[in-house]
Amino acid sequence: MNIYICLILFMKTVSSKIETVQRLSNAELDEHRRVTNSHVFPYVVAILQRSKYVSAGALIDENWILTAADGLFLMRETLKLVKVRLGSINYKKGGLLLPAKLIQIHPYFDDKSPIFDVAMVQLPETLRFTPKIKAIRLQKTFMDVAATHFIVTSWNPLLKQKPKHPESMEAIERRRMLTVTHLHPSEVEECAAELDAYGVNKTDLIMCLDPPGGSEICVENRNVGAPVVLNRVLWGVVSSWKTSDCDQGAVGPSFVTRVSAPDVTSWIHATLHGHRWKHKSNE
C-alpha cells in the first residue's frame, strides 16, 4: 500500500514538472521576462553601431537579416561601423559577431510615416545554421489578424540619460540580455483609426500591437526592429517611427510592418535573390 501511495506521489511530481517545462518552453524566462537560453529564439539578431545596440532584427536566410529602416537609414554612410551579433542572448558578448556587408532600405520608406519601415542587412558570409543560429520562416500569404497574442523579442536600448546613482554590474548585465513580451493585436478598426490620424490609409501594410496597459509610442524602449512572431512564423518587424507630437506624451500602439504585404514581400523576395525590384504604384 505504501509503495502504491509513493508511486502516485511520484507520478504527480513528474507530471507537475512536465507541465512546468511545457509552460516555460516557449519563453525560457526569468521573472523579468528575460531570455535565459540562446536556443529558444535562434533567429533574433542584435544590430550594433560598433558595440552600441541599435535595434533587433530577424535572420531570414543564410545571408540576410530583416529589421526596421529608420535606425539604419543614416548608417548606410558609415557601413563599416555596423555589426551584427547572432546566436547570443547578450548583445555585448557571445555568439557570432560579423560586420554588415550591405544595407538595403525599402525604396518607399519615408521617415515621416510608419509604412514601409523595413530594411535588410546582408552578411559578409553565408552562415551555417546551428541550434543557436537559425532563420525564421516568413509569412507569405496575407491573412487577417486574428491571433490572441504575438511573441516580440528585442533588447533594451541604451539609456540616453545617465542614472542618478551608479548602476551595479548586475543591473547593466540585465539590460544587455534579450527580453520577450507577448503583445495583443489591436482591433482592426482601432488600428485603422490610429493610422488614419497620421494620414495613413494603407492598413494592409501595418499591424498594431497593444502593449499591456498602453504605452507611449515615443519612449525609447519600443522594441525597434523586433521580430513579431506567431507559431514560429515571422509576421513583421516593429517600426521605429515616432509621431511629430512626441513631446506631448503621445500614447498609442506599436506599429508593425507586415512582411506579407504585397509591396513588402515582393521587395524582400527580389532582394534575397539579387533581382531588381519592379516598383509598383505607391498611391
UniProtKB/TrEMBL annotation:
User: Which is an annotated Pfam family here?
Assistant: Trypsin
BP term (GO), one: proteolysis
Matches recorded under SMART domains:
Tryp_SPc (SM00020)
Q: Which Gene3D superfamilies match?
A: Trypsin-like serine proteases (2.40.10.10)
Keyword Protease among record annotations: yes
Instruction: List the InterPro entries.
Output: Peptidase_S1, Peptidase_S1_PA, Peptidase_S1_PA_chymotrypsin, Trypsin_dom
Q: What keywords sit in the KW lines?
A: Disulfide bond, Hydrolase, Protease, Serine protease
Q: What SUPFAM superfamilies does the database record attribute to this sequence? A: Trypsin-like serine proteases (SSF50494)
- Under which name does UniProt file this protein? Hypodermin-A-like
Q: Which organism is it from?
A: Bombyx mandarina (Wild silk moth)
- Give the classification, highest ranks: Eukaryota, Metazoa, Ecdysozoa, Arthropoda, Hexapoda
